[in-house]
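Page 47, continued from p. 46.
Same chain as before, 212 aa.
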Amino acid sequence: LFIKIFEKVAEDFGAEYLAQGTIAPDWIESGGGIRNRIKAHHNVGGLPEKMGLKLVEPLRDLYKDEVRNVGKALNIPKKIYTKQPFPGPGLAIRIVGEVTEEKVDIIREASFILEKEIEAAAEKGKIEIPWQYFAVLLPTKSVGVHGDVRAYGYTIVIRAVDSIDGMSAAYSKISHEILQKISTRITNVLKDKVTRVVYDITNKPPATIEFE
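Result:
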């Protein structure tokens, strides 16, 4: 779908090229040849063989830390080249299982709260801002309570990691105080839609950074 949209927009603008931010971990993890496929990346295995745009990937053989060094050398503003990674397919990739409009609304709100709280804590010097931090919506529901009323809502996972090149990562040691504030805000705002918030303390490996 995103390729069809790109082609439609490209046609409207008379564009000939599709420039992607593909980096080394993308095609390494996507497998091929003697490499085992760890996970699919939309910008590697998701492109059709026949595409109306010429593909340009200037960063293909670089790792994330090397990309940031290039950005620094080119005098690109630091807030741009240090910006955390974000998946091409958008927030849908952070919904495990079926994607619905309701789930997209939930993960959008949870992500907004998480990012604002992490960034606010970093500005106050309470935390070193993680290399990447985001929310994930699990497909399972569990019982909760709001006031005196039973609720049956989804589980939100908080994922925050520290890394250099994206090939390996360690979960960020965020204080309970900050995690509790994030959890309270998410459950207060989303009420009966989210009844549980958990923190993922798994490194990469064995896990990957993103869930999908």
